[in-house]
């Protein structure tokens, strides 16, 4: 990530603001996209030279009042304003993240919950690596599989865009939520490598990353299409998992009694039938083996589970 993250953010957001939205009267032809630096400075009540120093990274310690004034001019919401303040903080002292273990462990209780919740659910970390997922989630969308990175799947994988009618909005929302998830100024080599890989491999990612959008990690309505059950409109909830470094439990559910609820129930019955058929076939093949107690949850390698449950290994990405 660029060392002058504060300047890059200010410049990107400034270029996205239409002058008329800032209350300015347009005269003549403008060659500069969005607002000019001096216009932001005037509207924020600061000198043009001071604002120029901020964008160029020559002054990295603006006051909270200055940041709030600039945020108002740029039309930033509360989430984006907090992100801007964080950039100013980390411009002074670069924060180093704690060393991460080679394998992030999902709490055992959460793994058990994935098995019994009866809804498509998975666990992701700050970088959108899927650490664990139940079988209903991976059947709903292949990208919801342990070992996948959801950004890599979306921008570099072979994901069928027909599964997401709102594909363009999904892409923009995911990149903006990713910025919010990793936070400003976090010097994590794994994150830097991922952003570099996505930037080289996807023009869509480069375009969206350059906007510097930040969106709060929150629930949302997601429209999907599945080849076996058709159209679904689901609610996606993201719930923090205590005792972890930012892991989230992501659950999809439908409005009770709706056509989407019926479609989701049908998908669940298909998954259950498939699981039963696999178990029966295994038992018939090896009559001397113990009863099959394989979990329906996929999880990362090294993730502890309850004694009777086996979790297959997968690379957490």
Furnish the topology, listing elements before pairings.
Elements: H1 5-14, H2 37-44, H3 48-56, H4 64-74, H5 78-92, H6 108-116, E1 121-124, E2 130-134, H7 135-140, H8 150-156, H9 167-182, H10 189-201, H11 203-211, E3 220-226, E4 230-240, E5 248-253, H12 259-285, E6 297-299
Antiparallel strand pairs: 1-2, 1-5, 2-6, 3-4, 4-5
Helix pairs in contact: 1-5, 2-3, 2-4, 4-5, 9-11, 10-11
Placed side by side, the strands forming the largest sheet appear as 3-4-5-1-2-6
Total number of distinct structural domains: 2
Biggest sheet character: 6 strands, antiparallel
Helix % is 40-55%
Q: Helix-strand pattern, N to C?
A: HHHHHHEEHHHHHEEEHE
CATH level-1 class of the largest domain: Alpha Beta
Uncertain residue ranges: 281-285, 287-295, 301-317
Terminus-to-terminus distance: 20 Å
Apparent shape = elongated
The average pLDDT is 82
Proportion of beta-strand residues: 5-15%
SS elements, strand count: 6
Q: Give the structural class.
A: alpha+beta
Total DSSP helices = 12
Question: What value does the Rg take, in angstroms?
Answer: 23 Å
The fold-level CATH name of the largest domain is Beta-Lactamase
Q: Give me the CATH architecture of the largest domain, please.
A: 2-Layer Sandwich
Question: Notable features of this structure?
Answer:
317 residues, alpha+beta, 434 Repressor (Amino-terminal Domain), 12 helices, 6 strands, 44% helix, elongated
């Amino acid at each position: 990530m660029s060392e002058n993250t504060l300047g890059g953010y200010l410049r990107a957001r400034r270029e996205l603001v239409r002058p008329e939205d800032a209350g300015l009267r347009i005269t003549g032809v403008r060659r500069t996209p969005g607002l000019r630096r001096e216009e932001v400075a005037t509207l924020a009540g600061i000198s043009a030279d001071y604002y120029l120093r901020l964008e160029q990274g020559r002054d990295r310690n603006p006051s909270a009042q200055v940041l709030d004034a600039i945020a108002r001019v740029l039309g930033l919401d509360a989430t984006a304003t907090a992100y801007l303040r964080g950039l100013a903080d980390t411009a002074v002292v670069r924060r180093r993240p704690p060393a991460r273990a080679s394998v992030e462990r999902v709490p055992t209780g959460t793994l058990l919950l994935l098995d019994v919740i009866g809804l498509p659910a998975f666990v992701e970390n700050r970088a959108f690596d899927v650490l664990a997922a139940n079988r209903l989630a991976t059947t709903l969308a292949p990208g919801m599989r342990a070992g996948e990175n959801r950004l890599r799947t979306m921008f570099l994988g072979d994901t069928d865009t027909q599964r997401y009618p709102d594909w363009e909005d999904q892409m923009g929302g995911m990149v903006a939520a990713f910025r919010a998830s990793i936070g400003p100024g976090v010097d994590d080599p794994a994150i830097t490598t991922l952003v570099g890989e996505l930037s080289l491999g996807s023009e869509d990612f480069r375009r969206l990353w350059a906007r510097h959008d930040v969106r709060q990690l929150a629930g949302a309505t997601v429209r999907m299409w599945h080849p076996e059950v058709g159209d679904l409109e689901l609610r996606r909830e993201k719930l923090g998992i205590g005792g972890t470094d930012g892991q989230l439990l992501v659950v999809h559910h439908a409005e009770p009694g709706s056509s989407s609820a019926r479609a989701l129930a049908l998908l669940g019955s298909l998954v259950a039938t498939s699981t039963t058929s696999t178990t029966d076939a295994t038992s018939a093949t090896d009559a001397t083996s113990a009863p099959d107690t394989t979990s329906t949850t996929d999880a990362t390698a090294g993730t502890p589970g309850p004694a009777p449950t086996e979790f297959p290994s997968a690379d957490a990405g």
